[in-house]
From TrEMBL:
One Pfam match: ECH_1
Protein family membership: Belongs to the enoyl-CoA hydratase/isomerase family.
Protein name: Putative enoyl-CoA hydratase echA8
EC number in record: 4.2.1.17
UniProt KW keywords: Lyase
CDD domains per record: crotonase-like
GO molecular function (one): enoyl-CoA hydratase activity
Protein's organism: Hartmannibacter diazotrophicus
The protein's enzyme class: lyase
Stored InterPro entries: ClpP/crotonase-like_dom_sf (IPR029045), Enoyl-CoA_hydra/iso (IPR001753), Enoyl-CoA_hydra_C (IPR014748), Enoyl-CoA_Hydratase/Isomerase (IPR051683)
Amino acid sequence: MAEQGEIRTFIEGNVGWLVVDNTRRHNAVSFAMWQALPAAVAALDADPAVRVIVLRGAGEETFISGADISEFATVRRDAETSRAYEAANEDSFAALRSASKPTIAMIRGFCMGGGMGLAAACDIRIGAEGATFAIPAAKLGLAYPPDAIADFVRLLGPSSTKDLIFTARKFDAAEAKSLGFLDRLVARDALACYVADYVAGLADLAPLTQMAAKSAIATLETPPGSPERKAALAAADRCFNSADYAEGRAAFAEKRKPAFSGR
């Protein structure tokens, strides 16, 4: 592993794994890792073998403890340096948010600050009992720009987002589930099997449908006729004109499991 940690990727079957690896610092994300993350997401998203992308921390103890604070005296020391740092943050969140394929955050242990931001940018968050969450900016005196908190507001609402940032308090997985941050909450020793089963189920279904759904949901706040709306409509048209749609109809008529190809 690199001295400042690294972003690793690998593919198992139809699943692309995106691993934040900095175990010496509880998988804290260094500036170099923030910079590397968008390209790693893009590579998995572009790989035709990948149906689902799973974000996780290295090891079995923690997800992502946040940004690597040990670097802040140099790379995030003032307003000028923070702008480049925040741009790297926002590029990482945007890469996950805009990936065409489903993105799943697999959360155990610490999920704090920038780690919560990365999880929030994913489509689905599956957490283990015993996980700990926080947005500790107020303990450091730093600020999040609008793009960095947009996903928190989308998931939690304005009031809960304010509460968590104002108080910087830690909260457990049960509260994360009740707030709407976690989509699924499972026993700690069941997390790996649960995620494996969940993503295998996704990978068996029609990928063009999943992509079209992501596109449509992402454009709900854009005006009719916008480029984003037009792209979402084109994604829907692609489904109806696809071999997968024909396969789905045939499989239903023949009472068998469909074999989707993404075409």
